[in-house]
Amino acid sequence: MPSPGLLPADVPSPDIPSPDALPAGAGPSTGASGQRRLRGGDGRGHAWFRIRDERQVLARTRSRQDQAADAITRFAGSLWFVYLHAVWFTGWILVNEGLVGSGARFDRFPFGLLTMIVSLEAIFLSTFVMISQNREAARQDIRAELDFEMNVRSEVWAAHIGCALGIDPGEVEQQVRAEVSQARAEIAAGGLARS
User: Fold this and answer.
1) What range does the domain containing 15 cover?
2) Residues 71 and 160 in one domain
3) pLDDT in tens, 50-93
4) What is the pTM of this model?
5) What three-state secondary structure class fits 38?
């Protein structure tokens, strides 16, 4: 199951009703929490089916500092950032080469102050990029947990539907394992053939 640290604890009751127990007219709806769900309930306030909205889960885990780091990284990765620096460096060099008057010079060649400022900027920008990469890794973890949860739900529902249709789950599982083993063998053989 997903780790309790990343996702809100609103997992429905483990006693999932069989498909024929759903009320007539049950259909999809969106709750106040942004979760899509089937209408109906079990009388205890649980929805029949809940799907967490990934964007809302991510929004709840995002602080103002994270938003600021993402905004800075987004700007630093844009062409406007390049244009701004081109104008800044050109202006700095022109002023300090005396092209606008020798009295305006404050950082003579080899532009030590400019070098220090750009180095500090690079340090901070690399930190913001790493923060954004860590946040992206956390997003991937949340997506993986949501995918895992959805896969478990799908498997449980498929088992209920299969039982309702009289399909032997053991026979299906045996066929699935055979197909997976064959696919893995083909992938491994293809990998060996390419090496």
Assistant:
1) 11-51
2) yes
3) 566 677 777 777 788 888 888 898 999 999 999 999 999 999 99
4) 0.52
5) strand
